[in-house]
């Protein structure tokens, strides 16, 4: 559920800003807001220091088994910064030398100093590049040496005495360094770059200390920004504002007397941008992994859809993947990853277990195991015959659409029950079921109940009369103009759930096709080995495509179709209490 918030103003003596800020940060309950984003030299200095530390810490590998260097974190950052600068300079030199190598390599190795010495005595050696199709005419007295010929170009040298005649070809300026020297210098720089990589890796055991220093730098920047952003009530009183969960307000009240604060606690105003904090029970936390993955959050005054999102996302995942064998692979991979990557939050793996098991159940009911057409009797008996008919699956998709979208409108009715707009939501509920029967009639040729025409008409009347409050008609009249398009959109939303059938069927078709093509090759051991390899690749690609389908379609049906019928805009900003980011190094 979305946690209720209180708007809190903390007042303190202007001379006690720092102590007040440190105490507030220790409490870690106040999400700070500022009327303005101030710029100050303290903020710039803290930002530069953070960038300095971040650049150094970003290149250090995390090697917990490696011993620490014994240097202080600041000394390590200084050394790493010098290595970063040296690596950057080496990289630039390497790029320049490789370009020069590419330019003169067609002419082979020679001494530029010797060429310059001959030029002082009137013997000119010049380098050229020309097209093989339009080779230039050369003076009779000139000496010509071709060094390389390709389909696209001819590279050659021309030697003349006492003059430099015009030659209709691209002249390549003689290098300042010989080819051998350039290659030697490139080798030295590459070795230097490898040495820098080794030196950086030697600080792998210091990663926790560097992370601590980086956290301290982030804390310092945040402290500077908050200190500068505090407002002044009078010459002696400073204050800052923020939002605190209602359940944590008592902690502020208890801390106020000891720190000499004044507190003003109010309900958030309608125009306040209030952060969203969702506190779900443990069994609902898995869906937070999806919210975090795609970066969505309901607004503070919107509805928390965690329950319905989890239920329908699991169903959509199962139908889109649709294969019990794939589900078993997902479950095995999840159990392995949970033991391997213990730092990942447990609710992420719980979500993967739920979706994997849902996929296995759906695959068992539909009799789908790696796209195998003829199932063994023990598996075939578990299949639900009704789900073996494609028309039934399509019909099920439309039922899911109607139920899913109806939940959205029933929820809106409950939310608006004390207002006339609840009747408009009743109208939209009527429209959804009219569109449901229309979709079944158009796609499946099922009979259309004549009573639904009257239901549809009644729904439109309710929508037109109650969709907009009378006092808002002057500003929101355009909603009535858009109503025909919204009605069409409602039909499209219902139809769009057919993607659950389409994507799931496509996944089965791909798996089945490859099985049919490759199974006959298992007659011989060599062809069987090749067939097994191709089957592995084919099913791997199919699994990837199925997961992409989940990301595109399974999430979309919740975040767009369902959310739009619920009026959910995902406008939330996360609740981020001001707290220390750095932690003591173990």
UniProtKB/TrEMBL annotation:
Q: Any idea what this protein is called?
A: V-type ATPase subunit-containing protein
Question: Which InterPro entries has this protein been placed in?
Answer: V-ATPase_116kDa_su
Q: Could you tell me the membrane topology recorded for this protein?
A: Multi-pass membrane protein
Any Gene Ontology biological process: vacuolar acidification
Q: Which residues cross the membrane?
A: 307-336, 348-372, 392-414, 426-445, 451-468, 528-552
- Lyase is among the record's keywords: no
Gene Ontology cellular-component annotations: proton-transporting V-type ATPase, V0 domain; vacuolar proton-transporting V-type ATPase complex
Q: Which UniProt keywords apply?
A: Ion transport, Membrane, Transmembrane, Transmembrane helix, Transport
Q: Where in the cell is it found?
A: Membrane
The record's family statement is:
Belongs to the V-ATPase 116 kDa subunit family.
Which GO MF terms are attached to this record?
ATPase binding; proton-transporting ATPase activity, rotational mechanism
């Amino acid at each position: 559920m979305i946690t209720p918030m209180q708007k809190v103003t903390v007042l303190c003596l202007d001379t006690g800003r720092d102590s007040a800020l440190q105490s507030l940060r220790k409490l870690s309950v106040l999400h700070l807001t500022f009327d303005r984003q101030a710029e100050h030299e303290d903020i710039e200095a803290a930002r530069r220091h953070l960038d300095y530390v971040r650049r150094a810490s970003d290149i250090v590998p995390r090697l917990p088994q490696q011993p620490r260097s014994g240097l202080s974190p600041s000394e390590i950052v200084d050394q790493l910064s010098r290595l970063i600068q040296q690596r950057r300079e080496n990289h630039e030199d390497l790029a320049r030398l490789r370009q020069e190598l590419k330019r003169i390599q067609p002419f082979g190795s020679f001494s530029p100093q010797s060429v310059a010495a001959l030029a002082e005595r009137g013997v000119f050696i010049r380098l050229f590049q020309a097209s093989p199709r339009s080779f230039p005419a050369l003076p009779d007295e000139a000496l010509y040496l071709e060094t390389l010929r390709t389909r696209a170009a001819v590279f050659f040298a021309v030697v003349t005495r006492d003059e430099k005649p015009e030659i209709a070809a691209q002249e390549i300026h003689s290098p300042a360094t010989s080819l051998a020297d350039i290659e030697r210098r490139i080798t030295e720089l590459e070795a230097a770059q490898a040495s820098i990589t080794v030196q950086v890796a030697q600080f792998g055991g210091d990663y926790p200390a560097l992370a601590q220093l980086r956290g301290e730098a982030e804390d310092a920047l945040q402290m500077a920004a908050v200190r500068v952003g505090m407002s002044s009530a009078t010459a002696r009183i400073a204050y800052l504002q923020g939002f605190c969960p209602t359940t944590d307000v008592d902690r502020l009240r208890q801390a106020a007397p000891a720190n000499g604060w004044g507190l003003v606690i109010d309900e958030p105003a309608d125009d306040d941008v209030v952060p969203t904090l969702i506190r779900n029970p443990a069994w609902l936390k898995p869906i937070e992994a999806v919210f975090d993955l795609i970066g969505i959050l309901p607004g503070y005054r919107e509805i928390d859809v965690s329950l319905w999102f989890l239920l329908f996302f699991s169903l959509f995942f199962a139908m889109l993947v649709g294969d019990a064998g794939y589900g078993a692979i997902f479950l095995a991979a999840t159990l392995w990853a949970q033991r391997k990557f213990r730092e990942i939050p447990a609710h992420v793996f719980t979500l993967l277990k739920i979706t994997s098991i849902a996929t296995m159940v759906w695959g068992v009911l539909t009799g789908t195991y790696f796209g195998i057409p003829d199932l063994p009797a023990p598996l075939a008996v578990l299949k639900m015959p009704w789900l073996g008919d494609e028309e039934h699956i399509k019909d099920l998709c439309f039922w899911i659409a109607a139920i899913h979208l109806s939940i959205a409108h029933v929820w809106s009715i409950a939310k608006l029950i004390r207002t006339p707009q609840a009747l408009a939501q009743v109208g939209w509920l009527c429209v959804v079921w009219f569109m449901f029967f229309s979709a079944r009639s158009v796609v499946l040729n099922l009979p259309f109940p004549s009573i639904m025409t009257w239901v549809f008409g009644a729904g439109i009347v309710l929508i037109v009369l109650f969709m907009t409050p009378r006092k808002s008609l002057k500003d929101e009249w355009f909603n009535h103009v858009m109503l025909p398009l919204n009605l069409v959109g409602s039909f499209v939303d219902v139809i769009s759930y057919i993607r659950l059938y389409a994507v799931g069927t496509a996944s089965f078709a791909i798996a089945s096709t490859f099985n049919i093509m490759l199974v006959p090759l298992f007659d011989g051991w060599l062809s069987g080995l090749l067939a097994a390899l191709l089957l592995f690749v084919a099913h791997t690609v199919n699994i990837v495509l199925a997961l992409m389908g989940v990301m595109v379609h399974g999430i979309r049906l919740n975040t767009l179709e369902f959310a739009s019928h619920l009026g959910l805009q995902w406008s939330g900003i996360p609740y981020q209490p001001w707290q220390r980011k750095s932690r003591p190094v173990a």
